[in-house]
Amino acid sequence: MDLKVKLKSFWELTKPNVTSLVLVATFIGFKMAMKQQGESIFDHGFLLFNVLLGSAFVSGGVGTLNEYLERYYDSLMHRTQSRPLPSGKLTSREALIFGIGISFFGMVYLTITVNPLTGLLSILTLVLYLFVYTPLKRKTAWNLFIGAIPGAIPPVGGWIAAGGDLSPVVWMLFGVLFLWQIPHFLSIAWIYRKDYQRAGFRMIGMPGSPLMITFLGTIGCSVVLLLLTLGLFLTGIVGKTYLVGATVIGVSFLILTICMAVNRSNRWAHRLLLGSVLYLPALLLFMIID
């Protein structure tokens, strides 16, 4: 196989879009912890570089190992059949060695160059995602609420890396990332429910799951998400520009969630998915600029 194709396949295994969001969320946690301590991130540039580099390796490794564990099921779903392992671009052995290698490097790097607690959080992320959440996807439709925990850890890692204490702000950041994932993944599960059924995955919103409870719970998560994002303003960690922006996009996201719950159609699921994909980067951007 052409070397360029192989390298591109290894890159694809790391789920670069997900890793990018992980790094932005980690940066937000780091920046806010520095701000709370009255310090500038520019005075700690090398530390920031270390936490982002280590986090990138861990995130990429987790994504790779997840695709290794689910390679057979990915081959059964139309949306994932073109991934490097189901398509045969890479072997399972190559993916396993690559995933273990970069994950291990990232965890050790964070432990040595940042601090042991940040390294421990990266290990916790890997264990929860690969050995708890991934197997649960075939056992219970409520697996998402477990998977959302490692998905919400990045800003906590950035906060701890900057030496911040466990103040309410860091828990609010965790809550924001946790709650955003519920409507986001509900929309994906709804759109690709036939694919998930074919592979034997059990997801919220699929036939057989309690739809009324699911959609009411999703609306509830969006309401609390809005309140949490606005609550960050009350802590003084963000300013008025953030408040206005977070209010506009938060209310819009809540409306999309309600429309999806009422209509329960692919059309609204696609709209909710697009809204969630735009919402989180926009919210994080408001946090960065204000």
Largest sheet features: none
> Element order, helices and strands?
HHHHHHHHHHHHH
CATH superfamily of the largest domain: UbiA prenyltransferase
Distance between the termini: 48 Å
What does this structure look like?
This protein is mainly alpha-helical and 290 residues long. The radius of gyration is 19 Å and the shape is globular. 44% of the residues are buried. The longest helix has 25 residues, at 45-69. It has helices at 3-13, 16-36, 45-69, 71-74, 92-113, 116-136, 144-151, 154-161, 168-191, 193-199, 211-234, 240-263, 266-289. The chain is 77% helix and 0% strand. It has two domains: 1-166, Tetracycline Repressor, domain 2, CATH 1.10.357; 167-290.
Write the SSE topology.
Layout: H1 3-13, H2 16-36, H3 45-69, H4 71-74, H5 92-113, H6 116-136, H7 144-151, H8 154-161, H9 168-191, H10 193-199, H11 211-234, H12 240-263, H13 266-289
Helix pairs in contact: 2-3, 2-8, 2-13, 3-5, 3-6, 3-8, 5-6, 6-7, 6-8, 7-9, 8-9, 9-11, 9-13, 11-12, 12-13
